[in-house]
Amino acid sequence: MSLASRIIEEDSRYLMQSFSRWYPLVIERAKGSLVYDVDGKEYIDMNAGIGVMALGHGNEKIIRAVQEQMNKFFHYSLTDFYYDLAVRVARKLVSLVGFQGKVFYANSGTESVEASLKIARGHTGRQYIIGFTNSFHGRTFGSMSFTSSKSVQRSAFSPLLPSTLLVPYPDRHNPLCREDCANAVLEYIEDWVLKKIVDPNDVAGFLLEPIQGEGGIIVPPREFLQGLQRIARKNGILLILDEVQTGIGRTGKMFAFEHFGVEPDLICLAKALGGGLPLGAVVGRSEVMDLPRGSHANTFGGNALALAAAEVVLEEVPGLLGRVNSLGKMIVDILGSTKSRYVEEIRGMGLMIGVDLRRDGEPYEEGLEKVLRRSFERGVLAIGAGESVVRLLPPLVIEEELAQRGSSIIREEIDRL
Ligand SMILES: Cc1ncc(COP(=O)(O)O)c(C=O)c1O
Question: Whose CA is nearest to atom 3 of ligand 1?
């Protein structure tokens, strides 16, 4: 029995098996954009630990910053105390979002989303939050109430949060929304939802991903986000963007909202922010971030080690945006040279790329599983999204040669279907 097989066997004995693993990778170590398994095999990382390791694995600057911080202190809870590192990272985040804002630190994506829901309700004094179908916002009760990319993510856990509504995300595969999706959805929200279901004065916020990640790398039309912002502003509703996956340079801009010409009121962050340590954040307009004393906090949010890593991430990522765009184009070109009749669409922005595999117009799940498993066997790590989309989220620092080799292998495996 290989070491990997033994660990997988014990994993099934000792860990709850509620995950959705694609293939038997048992990781031992990683460096840059390469991952090594316990049996010594090397892999090209086109996942970055699901969009987390933007600066690659074992980044020397992050290691040094965290080590220096370890020598000062690990943890001392912002809930009751102060430290300069927390202020410095918040100041940097605010300067990067480009509006007068304040920050709340969390430990994960779902916790950032939970905080944004509380901030929206607390600030507006309104109950309703409107989310969008096919979204992914996390697995705790508040965020799960808006997570709807697969029914298994919610079906066993009702009742969910009350005073929530889901409306269609403008995806042309949604049968209610084929042509001119953006306007169809905007009209539905304005003329049906806000007139017939809920009074706009009862709605605290719209919560959505500017590009859906887990749902299958769905990029909405630019005019959709702009129209939604117009409806939000007209009715005093907050625009809450979940940039947990799209944020921190992933799409070729620091934040995906910059592509769409909108200005959100609240932005949820996590994943890449902590450079591999658990860190989330909500960045919001100063006037919105006004929850009263004692009404929201946590023990670990803004942990000093995670913030030390984040300070490096926020310093380094802006300088990588040019290569994120050029490498993204290169990968899309390589994938686009496929001869496969199963590739319906290649979409995304920057280094957030999806290849939608369909057979006779229907999601080709088996094809996705084959491509991911065979690519893994050939030393390339990618995962899926939506029902049948190959999802690529490599480190933003991936070397051109590795990105080329990794995406060529994936293309060859798509061609083999
Ligand atoms: C857009 C988005 N929001 C929220 C989350 C939840 O983040 P976490 O798994 O850190 O709770 C994810 C995770 O994939 C995500 O992609």
Answer: 137
